[in-house]
Write a structure and sequence with these properties.
Layout (H helix, E strand, L loop, with lengths): L5 E7 L3 H12 L6 E7 L6 H7 L6 E4 L5 H11 L4 E4 L5 E2 L3 H12 L4 E11 L4 E4 L9 H4 L10 E4 H7 L10 H10 L3 E14 L4 H4 L1 H15 L2 H12 L1 H13 L5 H8 L2 H6 L3 H11 L1
Helix pairs in contact: 1-2, 9-10, 10-14, 11-12
């Protein structure tokens, strides 16, 4: 059968300990119409040696300074020619058969602004456990997306037409550029959930999500303030203003050997947070986003 061309963009910077596994998870797909572009930001570890090892199988690669991850991805997209586009961070992996499955789906959907997303399994490097991320199987809901990024980035694939209609990633953002792009893209084309696991999202101590701290929370707050409702804007702001207090309370309640910890936690919350929050699950949504 005819398979549409797929371009996989891999941004990387000093991820040599993971890069080869990532490359093999893409090249090992044996997809018949594939281009792989690696945009390395000038790594000083062993990344360049790995890229030279596989350069005969890569469509393009370079190792030079850039303006961050979003800029590297934008550069890769400019050099790509695929009918279907995606990016895979250099510490993540595709499950075997992912690209064949994705290619078949897009044959049926034509060349329209369209995105499909599946689920990711999470590989926790700290305890070597693999867990399924059920949230990334949520039915698409644009309003929900404005306050909760439930889409798993490494399990998303879209048409060239959607990228062109939406525009590039915002290079001023370091942590939420994928979320911001998904919100903008969902206004340009159709988003379709596929109930399959497409990728492995690797979580480790150097991961940006775990090291972003207050800078990351500020970017999240900015996205909510730009796109979501007044209620969610106020809730995110109040949680941010009381973040350290809430996290200490959460840790203390978790350490207690008592039943119904959630009720105790909600009762002891700072007053301005408790009075504003309509549902305790909303608070957990915000805390889940903030980390």
């Amino acid at each position: 059968m005819f398979y549409p061309s797929i371009s996989v963009i891999i941004p990387s910077f000093n991820q040599g300990q993971y890069l080869e596994e990532t490359l093999l998870s893409v090249l090992g797909q044996n997809y018949p119409n594939l281009e792989v572009l690696v945009l390395d930001g000038g790594s000083t570890d062993g990344s360049v040696g790995i890229l030279k090892k596989y350069e005969s199988k890569l469509t393009y690669w370079h190792s030079q300074p850039d303006c961050g991850q979003a800029d590297a991805i934008n550069q890769g997209m400019k050099r790509s020619s695929g009918d279907i586009l995606c990016w895979l961070n250099s510490d993540d992996l595709y499950f075997p058969g992912t690209l064949l499955e994705v290619g078949k789906k897009f044959v049926e959907r034509g060349k329209r602004p369209h995105l499909i997303y599946g689920a990711s399994a999470i590989l926790d490097e700290s305890n070597k456990k693999m867990i399924g991320d059920a949230q990334s199987l949520a039915q698409f809901d644009l309003f929900k997306l404005t306050h909760h990024d439930f889409i798993s980035q490494p399990s998303t694939f879209w048409t060239q037409q959607l990228w062109e209609a939406t525009g590039e990633l915002n290079i001023q953002q370091n942590y939420v550029f994928d979320w911001d792009w998904f919100i903008r893209a969902s206004q340009q084309g159709k988003f379709e959930r596929v109930q399959k696991f497409y990728s492995i999202y690797r979580y480790h101590q150097d991961h940006k999500t775990s090291t972003g701290g207050s800078d990351r929370r500020q970017e999240i707050l900015q996205i909510v303030q730009q796109y979501s409702s007044d209620y969610w804007q106020d809730l995110y702001l109040k949680v941010e203003q009381n973040y350290d207090k809430i996290k200490r309370l959460e840790a203390w309640v978790s350490s207690l050997k008592v039943p119904k910890k959630r009720y105790l936690f909600s009762y002891l919350l700072p007053r301005e947070v408790k009075h504003h929050c309509r549902d305790i699950q909303h608070l957990y949504t915000v805390l889940g986003m903030y980390g």
